[in-house]
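Sequence in, structure out. Go.
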Amino acid sequence: MAQTMLEGSAISAFCGGVAVMLSAGIQTDEAVYMLADEHEDSHFKSICSAVYRDLAEGETLSNAMEATAAFPDYAVSMVRAGEAAGRLEQVLRRLDVYYEEEERTYAKLRASVSYPAALLAIMSVILAFALAFILPVFIDVYNNLTGTLTAGSFSSMNVSIIIGWVALVITLVCTCAVLVLTFLSRSESGRQRLIGIFEKLPFTRDAMYQLALSRFTAALSTYVSSGMNTESAMQASLEFVTNERLRPKVLAAYEAMVDAKNPRSLAQAITENDVFEPLYARMLSVGHETGSSDEMLSRLSQIFFEDSLERIDKVIDRIEPLFAAFLTITVGATLIAVMLPLIGIMRSIG
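Output:
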């Protein structure tokens, strides 16, 4: 049993490698064995070896992947649906792209916040040092010059102390938030928590909705192509919908499809319950009319996924300027906190 899940890049390499070998006519167990043989001793190699052993004993690829506990539930479920549909190679290629892009996104996120996180940590130390050692020195000077100090001098000291503490608290909060963000992005369970957090934030909510929509549509496409009726496919795909905005819409669409009095088709249910935007709902209706619903769903899944990545990239591109602005303000606050007492002393002496 694996101790930890594979990283997104490793899952992408596994799915992509197996898909390429399947397209060359190599059997699944042999493909996994060859994939393990290509890598040196590592966590990835041990997982591939465990999958191969189960395959050699007659297990399906999805069951073998699940037994290792190293693959996300989404990947396992999609592979299982692909096996049932006879489209294992296509599903593996889709998972290859999905996890490759997911890993790229999280890598960019880590790179965007790691440098500001280091600067924030250093700034926290500087502010703490200023409050603990530098400002007390000024306070002692003020106490020694009590007879000559004006009320304005004491006011300058109070303002500097307030600025220092406010800057320190804000910096520490931001530093902790960035460090937690960096830590969570390194594991699958942490990423799921991040997704839950991002779904509630106004500037990432729409991107997370599109990502959830892509996963749901990909699952629905795979189940429909397996020969499953649309009602059962919709019910099975509900398992992948955890987004709080999307799930009520999908559930309402499913209930409309199984309504005994006035059942709706898949395209009608999705259109009437605003699961897709009008343009994409119309595309699905066209696919339904031409008998290619699974292909249209697959295409829409890719569109939603690319839209989600584009939205996430825009958010990430804004992170560094925001951190730079915050650091500039923090440095300015630190300088003001240190300089105000000096100005007060100079005025008193002068």
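Check: The mean pLDDT is 79. The chain is about 80% helix and 0% strand.
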